[in-house]
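lol ok so funny story. i was supposed to be doing the assay writeup but got distracted and ended up predicting the structure for this chain instead. priorities right. anyway since i did it might as well share w the group, maybe its usefull for someone
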Amino acid sequence: MRTLIVGDIHGCIDELDALLEECRYSSKDRLILAGDLVAKGPDSRAVVRRAMELSAEAVRGNHDGHVLRWFHASKKEREALALKPEHQRVVDALVPKEWAWLDALPYFLRVPEHQVLVVHAGLVPGRPLEAQREKDLVTMRSLTEEGEASSKIEGLTPWASRWTGPETVVFGHDAVRGLQRHPFAWGLDTGCVYGGQLTALVLPERRLVSVKAKRVYVAPGKGD
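and the output, tada:
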């Protein structure tokens, strides 16, 4: 059985469908999405629906978390929440069964047959998995000089370059650095929503497959 791991989709449903076709995806394959299924792109609900239709698995990304905070807030708390337009569109679109699916997403998934661990953003090297902070799992990009997690990039070390296994970590989130290939960590966020590409890692052959974005959906930037 093959496993396909897909980088940040951000509502880019046409590119997801094109990527699966390029990979010759079938129902026999295991499909894992590396978080940030929603927000910024054209049709977040369609991506969630496609994932459900295909019985895909996924890890929680920071933008998935943004809308889930609204979902779990009380009516009074929701009135006080200042949602960005990109998140408001998701909130307005999803229906109860789609919220339930999104809310069930874990922070990481293991693929033991390939010695792979999937997470949205990153892991702090040397820290046991059970001791990793949820915030770091969905927001980190780099390590400080002290070896702590940081969401920033400039002047800091990519955490993935310091990860020494034994599991290979496959992650997204870092569109600024783009495709990353380190001995024990692969970054798949190739900035589809910014006009880049949507990328999948196909296991066990460890083959990369990408499709070009149809257009620039949001202006490229450091973002969050």
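The first helix runs from residue 13 to 22. DSSP finds seven helices and 13 strands in the chain.
back to the writeup now i swear
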